[in-house]
């Protein structure tokens, strides 16, 4: 680590403020620990209204604002590697591998600003793949704690697009649509939004049904982490430093040293603590750990299982262009219903439709009208979860493609094709990078799998890294297998459990 950098000491340093980081920060601060949260992005939208102006940004909107939609690109393909930081305060980051393109978030509250707000609890048997200390029954109170904070509920007035989707999946021979619990505040009338408070006592608005959640809900209706868990952390004395990007992790006399760059000042600093919670998101957590083990050699005892059991959650995304039966895919929540498809003795998969947030995009009127009649169709299922991520000394590498689980991907593509035909669209295209076997995923997970030993994974049932006591992982990289459903609620519930164990 850099002996000339500024340093300060805490009981725990949390890297990242998404579902794993925010939950840990809140619960550990409540337990009386001195907590520092380091987040590379700014405060976004309503969550930053009481913060200093240099720490906050409005959601990317309009011709000028949309430039901040993209933070940067990490490219590792065709023997070429380059990284381009476009905006230090940008919203999303794109990672491009030979056969996989994926997107990660940047900002206080992490992925809660650009997901569809679905809270999806997996069946109890999902935890059979976890260390034996974790069971479905043991996880129940932790899921309830997440529900209490994020208050998910189905949309009370089902939008027209849900009826179209239900008719399409039924005609395609799939199970009918089921309403999903969404972490959104619903009012009595979307045309007359109200001011309500989150479980943390923070005022915010009710939904206006404009479907912009996955590019930032400008109506403030999503119960995002910056309106729920993080205010609890701050209220109990936690320090949160936005626009501070962690660049390295090592050990020192006082436990762990976390090196970070403050993008506001350009200064490099170091925070020390006996405990570190890594919750930077799957790919960024993997990158930090690989660099610490193989380049800086500051965490030399990290398991050789690092990077194994990687998954894309079976993500498939199709664009259906100009439906003949859909009036406006942007009216209503981005996503609010799903068809759950069984596969005999195998775990099933989910099919859904996501509206296009045309009101958030700087588009000409003609294109806006066409996109209102278009929609994304998606499927996600529990893939084989046996891909590998590596590290070439400069960044991550992976060759994951459809061969990860060809039978599942083929079955889901066939289901999406049948559903798309019912929409009577002008055309429907798999939203993937060029190449027949390429994947576009928004749920990269695994690589730091929970396991019983270093032969099987990287961390134990508490998320504590084997060989490095006090170093914890708390994001999607912990998954030992793909859930085949939205992972955010499970990440948060595991973090509730983890924080309770750390606080003891």
From TrEMBL:
The keyword Lipid metabolism applies. Its cofactor is FAD. Residues 11-287 form the FAD dependent oxidoreductase domain. Residues 441-495 form the Glucose-methanol-choline oxidoreductase C-terminal domain. The keyword Flavoprotein applies. GO terms for molecular function: cholesterol oxidase activity; steroid Delta-isomerase activity. One of its GO terms (biological process) is cholesterol metabolic process. Its EC number is 1.1.3.6, 5.3.3.1. Keywords: Cholesterol metabolism, FAD, Flavoprotein, Isomerase, Lipid metabolism, Oxidoreductase, Steroid metabolism, Sterol metabolism. Pathway: Steroid metabolism; cholesterol degradation. Belongs to the GMC oxidoreductase family. This is Cholesterol oxidase. It comes from Blastococcus tunisiensis. The lineage of its organism: Bacteria, Bacillati, Actinomycetota, Actinomycetes, Geodermatophilales.
């Amino acid at each position: 680590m850099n002996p000339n950098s500024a340093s300060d000491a805490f009981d725990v340093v949390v890297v990242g403020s998404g579902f794993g980081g925010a939950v840990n920060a809140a619960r550990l601060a409540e337990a009386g620990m001195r907590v520092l949260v380091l987040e590379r992005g700014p405060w976004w939208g309503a969550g930053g209204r009481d913060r200093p102006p240099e720490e906050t940004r409005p959601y990317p909107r309009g011709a000028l604002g949309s430039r901040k939609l993209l933070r940067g690109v990490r490219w590792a393909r065709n023997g070429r590697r380059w990284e381009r930081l476009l905006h230090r305060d940008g919203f999303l980051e794109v990672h491009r591998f030979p056969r996989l393109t994926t997107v990660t978030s940047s900002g206080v509250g992490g992925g809660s600003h650009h997901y569809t707000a679905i809270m999806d609890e997996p069946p109890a048997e999902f935890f059979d793949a976890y260390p034996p200390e974790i069971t479905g029954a043991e996880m129940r109170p932790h899921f309830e704690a997440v529900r209490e904070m994020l208050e998910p509920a189905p949309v009370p007035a089902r939008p027209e697009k849900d009826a179209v989707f239900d008719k399409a999946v039924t005609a395609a021979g799939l199970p009918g649509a089921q309403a999903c619990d969404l972490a959104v505040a619903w009012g009595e009338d979307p045309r007359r939004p109200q001011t309500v408070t989150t479980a943390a006592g923070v005022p915010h608005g009710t939904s206006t049904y404009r479907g912009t959640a996955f590019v930032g809900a400008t109506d403030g209706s999503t119960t995002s982490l910056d309106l729920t868990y993080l205010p609890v952390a701050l209220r109990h004395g936690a320090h949160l430093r936005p626009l501070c990007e962690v660049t390295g992790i090592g050990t020192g006399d006082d436990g762990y040293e976390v090196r970070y760059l403050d993008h506001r000042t350009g200064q490099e600093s170091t925070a020390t603590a006996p405990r570190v919670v890594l919750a930077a998101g799957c790919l960024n957590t993997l990158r930090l750990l690989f660099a610490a083990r193989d380049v800086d050699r500051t965490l030399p005892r990290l398991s050789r299982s690092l990077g194994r059991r990687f998954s894309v959650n079976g993500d498939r995304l199709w664009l259906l262009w100009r439906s003949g039966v859909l009036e406006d895919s942007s009216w209503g929540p981005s996503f609010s219903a799903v068809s759950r498809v069984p596969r005999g003795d195998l775990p099933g998969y989910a099919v859904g439709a996501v509206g296009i947030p045309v009101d958030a995009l700087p588009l000409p009127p003609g294109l806006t009208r066409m996109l209102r009649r278009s929609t994304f169709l998606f499927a996600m299922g529990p893939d084989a979860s046996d891909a590998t991520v590596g590290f070439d000394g400069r960044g991550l590498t992976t060759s994951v493609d459809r061969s990860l689980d060809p039978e599942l991907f083929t079955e889901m593509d066939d289901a999406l094709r049948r559903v798309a035909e019912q929409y009577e669209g002008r055309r429907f295209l798999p939203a993937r990078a060029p190449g027949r076997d390429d994947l576009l995923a928004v749920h990269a997970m695994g690589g730091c799998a929970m396991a019983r030993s270093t032969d099987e994974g990287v961390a134990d049932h508490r998320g504590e890294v084997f060989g490095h006591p006090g170093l914890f992982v708390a994001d999607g990289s912990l998954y030992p297998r793909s859930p085949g459903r939205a992972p955010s609620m499970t990440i948060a519930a595991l973090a509730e459990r983890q924080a309770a164990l750390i606080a003891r």
